[in-house]
Amino acid sequence: MTTDRRTVNALLAGLPLALAHPLAAAQPRRDSVVLGMVLEPPGLDPTAGAAAAIGEIVHYNILEGLTKIGVEGAVTPLLAENWTVAPDGKTYTFALRKGVTFSDGSAFDAQAVKFSFERAKAPGSTNKARKTVFDNLSSVVVLEPHIVSLVFDQPDATLPFRLGENTAVILHPNSAAQAATRPVGTGPYRLDSWSRGSAVSLVKWDGWRDAARVRIRKATFRFINDPAAQVAALLAGDIDGMPRFAALQALAQLRSDKRFGVEVGSTAGKGIMAINNRRKPLDDLRVRRALAHAIDRQAFITGAQEGLGRPIGSHFAPTDMGYLDLTRRYPYDPDKARALLRDAGVATPLQLTLTLPPPPYARKGGEIVAAMLAKVGINARIENVEWAQWLAGPFKGQFDLTIVNHVEPLDYATAYADPNYYFGYDSALFRGLVATLAATSNRTEKARLWRDIQRQLAEDAVNVFIWNPAQVAVYRRGLRGLWSSSPIFANDLAAVSWAPPATS
Fold this sequence. Notes:
Helix content is 28%, strand content 22%. It contains 16 helices and 21 strands.
């Protein structure tokens, strides 16, 4: 069911009842926190699953990588103390932290790095960074117990950032097979429980190398995809915050409530209407261009995102390196869209299915998109599915149209250089651009190629590139350390704490 503005306003009209809820007046425990999430992950191994929700729970908390990406996007050492790069840019040598263990007592060393990265590269690997990182990895060389070299076929100046993403976390051979349900890592938390369909709880690991600075002993992630339920949970005190709040139509009320803080930041997300490039008549460039002209990006952002977001014209976010504004390539033009459909010989109304996953941007945005498409002669039948169904259907190529936010930064190679990816874009020209980019270390040339890559995706109208979402974090006053922006999807719980209670 889609929750509209009237439903949320009706809920907010019951504010006195929410305030009367015993949890609303209760002071939070100073060593625990309950956070809301929109989606439940299908598993807890980010090296094997595609869902960004996995990283929201385990990344930096249970599982760590060699580097860390901070809230502003800066890269710092994590399991690596430092690294050097060979003059040709093809070999990175990492000096690893000593004295680090996994929470099961196993030692972290260069062999664990070698195992994790060779596993990511192996045939049959489902690591979503395989094409962007690990296919380029020639070998992992253990030089000493705590020194390891990564040798690449082509130089990759983005590697320190890539190794800070959740796809590059380090697993131990003894526990990797169970990581989807019982991950064991080197981070400050251990998995406490997972109540399917409800919540995941983590508990502080007292054996962590810097446990004294971790203030939150227990953290619970509750899964709440309905916007009205998110608002209700905040007002009732059932959750302490929601780092990626989705009920944007309730922000005015929450901003005026002194119990809450609201922060708006940036993301690396690319919100798109994905098109199945394999299916007729969507395999016709003119039809895909018609779809692009049919969508009013700003109207979508206003209607589905309360104006919080920026229009985009290709599969890059404004925060990405090399971003190029291509929003003028396909301006909103229903007449042009109808003309392109006629040129393609499409009889209208064209019947298509628009499959929508649970996030409000998709459910509410889908209704807006369907109305826009109807104006140009396309009847988009809406099909609402749960996240697991989306992963088993559209993500496997079984769809016409769908709306989804791709949150990973610089994921152009993963999404568009693989003809088997879910929307089936197959362009030798584009793959050549990606290969040329991977082979160059010249910054000027890289910048040019990034622009060419964006132009090619726009020229081919692979998908309808709509918006770069803002991040909205809502939290109870006194809760500190939640990320206000998301260069990647993560919640760094070791940085979270409660402010000391005020004294009179």
